[in-house]
Amino acid sequence: MKNFKVILAGLSLSMLAGCSSLKTSSDYDPEANFNDVNTYAWVEKKTQDSRYHLDGLMDQRVRTAVDSQLSLKGIKLTDPAKADVLVNYLTKVDKKINVDTFNSNYGYNPYYGHGWGMSGSMYSQTTVREYEVGTLILDMVNRESGQLIWRGSVADTIRDQNTPEERVEVVNQAISEMLKNYPPKPTAK
Q1: Mind listing the pLDDT tens digit for each residue in 94-124?
Q2: I want to staple 12 with a disulfide (CB 3.0 to 4.6 A). Which of 74, 93, 131, 160 is the partner?
Q3: What span, in angstroms and rounded, lies between the C-alpha atoms of 144 and 171?
C-alpha cells in the first residue's frame, strides 16, 4: 500500500497538468540573506528502504526544471559540501469532493403567472464529483545551519496528460510559477 501511495504521488506530479490555474505560495525566513545564496545542491537520498520508489522520469523532470530556473536566477549547482543551500522536493495528493445541487421550479403559479414559480413541479439534481489535487513542495535549507530558509509550493487539480512532452511542459510551467518570486523581496517596515 505504501508503494502505491508513493507511486501515486509521483504520478500526481505528472498529472498536475492541464493546469488552468496553478495555485502557488511561498514562505521564507525573514532573517535569511538571500543575496548570499549563490550555489545549491540536491539533498541526497538517505534511505536504503527498497520499498521507497520515486518515479524516475518525473524526478528527472522536476530536477531539470528546478536546475533550469535556479540557473536563470544565477544560482549554480555544486557539490553538496560546498553549497550555500540544499534543495529538496516532495509531492502529495489530496482527495477533494465537490457537491452541487440544482433546483428547478416551473409550472403555473397564480401569483407569478406562467413559467417559473413556486408551484408546479420541482426538480432537484445533486452531483457529487471526487477529484484529486496534486501539490509539489520545494524546500531550500541553509547547509551550514540546517535551517529551512525558503519553501515554495504549487498545486492544481490533477488531469491526465497523454504524452511525455506534455508532462515536461506542465512541470516546467509549475516550477517556473513557483519560483517566480524567488528570491523573496523583504517588505519595507
Answers
A1: 887 888 887 766 555 555 555 555 555 566 7
A2: 93
A3: 30
